[in-house]
TrEMBL record:
This is GDSL lipase. Pfam families: Lipase_GDSL. Belongs to the 'GDSL' lipolytic enzyme family. It comes from the Eukaryota. Keywords: Signal. Residues 1-31 form the signal peptide. The lineage of its organism: Eukaryota, Viridiplantae, Streptophyta, Embryophyta, Tracheophyta. Coiled coil: none annotated. GO terms for molecular function: lipase activity. CDD domains: SGNH_plant_lipase_like (cd01837).
Length: 368
């Protein structure tokens, strides 16, 4: 009896203190959360999603992937980190978990939906996790987030979150691949592809907006013609093949116009476009003299001209791997090194308006 009384009297001050803390502290979403980061895209942003998709040989699962930073393959197509990894770090967030990783319980810091090979157009590569499937997963995740923290806090997190995209490169690589024997691609086919890609992108961005998303960040298409894999495919000898360059530029111009239009149509819609095209192009051209990449055309890992034959990590193929990836711009035939991704991420995060506009990522994260 005496013992029970003692416990009861001890509990009252604790409860009172707890109640005071609950009522006096600001709303929990302000106090305990940073704006989350939700990521969509292809292999440039895939941090392991593809490994859980059940398609054998589709992900970066063998040496030398991951050798520089993680010291083992992590599903990332690089020797180390990708742009979303650096962005998460700059934003004070942990590395994001890929959505299909079993057992995820926390959706408040962000999630990565990006997957290797992904296209915007669903019919192009049926075995990959295309953008539509990624956005479907996101809508499913919103329900899980609401179960985790309640509707009010979830809605606040969704509106403060940054939605980071790198997508559509594969839609154009696919167009060139299919027409490789009859280049140049006709104007009709070119415009048809661009219009369909932009049309579907519009739909997906609006779906995320309808779920409460407001802050969008886009990496524009890189100079596709400078990729070692593209030069190998087209049997092009030189710095950058002109036709893929033209396609990327046309897409980027149309996409910039779309983002502007969405900003005027959708209240509260804010965005950032990082000019990855120019940034990567300048590094290909002036890699050694200005940017510290001794080799900016041949990939560290692969075979064939420019190491552009995508044999890196492939069992049963002979490929070579460089001994110092930090001197290389390209780790494999289509993906930059950890060192290059770090440089891009710094520009995306805090670069001036000639590189990233109308906001840079730092401003976008801070925006209310
Ligand atoms: C989306 O892409 C499909 C092909 O996958 C196309 O038929 C459709 O017209 C596109 N939608 C828009 C709105 O452009």
């Amino acid at each position: 009896m005496a013992k029970i009384t003692a416990i009861t009297t001890n509990m009252f001050p604790t409860l009172a203190l707890l109640a005071t803390l609950l009522f006096l502290s600001p709303s929990p979403s302000n106090a305990q959360y940073k704006p989350p980061l939700y990521v969509f895209g292809d292999s440039l942003y895939d941090d392991g999603m593809t490994l859980y998709n059940g398609v054998k040989g589709a992900g970066a699962e063998f040496w030398p992937y991951g050798e520089t930073y993680f010291k083992k393959p992590s599903g990332r197509y690089s020797d180390g980190r990708l742009i979303p990894d650096f962005v998460a770090q700059f934003a004070g967030l942990p590395f994001l978990q890929p959505y299909l990783l079993p057992g995820i319980k926390d959706f408040t810091r962000g999630i990565n939906f990006a997957s290797a090979g992904a296209c915007v157009l669903v019919e192009l590569r049926p075995q990959t996790i295309n953008l539509k499937r990624q956005v479907d997963y996101f809508v499913q995740m919103v329900q899980k987030l609401k179960q985790q923290v309640g509707e009010g806090t979830a809605n606040q997190l969704l509106s403060e979150a940054v939605y980071l995209f790198n997508i559509a490169g594969n839609d154009y690589v696919n167009l060139l691949q299919k027409n490789v024997k009859k280049l140049p691609v006709s104007n009709f086919k070119r415009n048809q592809r661009i219009n369909m890609v932009i049309g579907n992108l519009t739909t997906h961005i609006k779906t995320i907006y309808d779920q409460g998303g407001r802050k969008f960040a886009f990496q524009n298409l890189g100079p596709l013609g400078c990729m070692p894999s593209m030069k190998y495919m087209l049997n092009f000898k030189g710095t950058c093949a002109p036709e893929p360059q033209e396609l990327a530029k046309l897409h980027n111009a149309k996409f910039a116009a779309l983002a502007k239009r969405l900003q005027s149509q959708l209240p509260g819609f804010k965005y950032s476009i990082y000019d990855f095209y120019t940034s990567l192009y300048l590094r290909v051209i002036y890699g050694s003299s200005r940017y510290g990449f001794r080799e900016s055309q041949t990939a560290c890992c692969g075979s064939g001209s420019y190491n552009g034959d995508f044999t890196c990590q492939k069992k049963g193929y002979t490929f070579s791997v460089c001994s110092n990836p930090s001197e290389y711009l390209w780790f494999d035939a289509a993906h930059p090194t950890d060192k290059a991704n770090q440089a891009f991420s710094k520009e995306f995060w805090s670069g001036g308006s000639s590189l990233v506009a109308p906001y840079n990522l730092q401003q976008l994260f801070a925006a209310k």
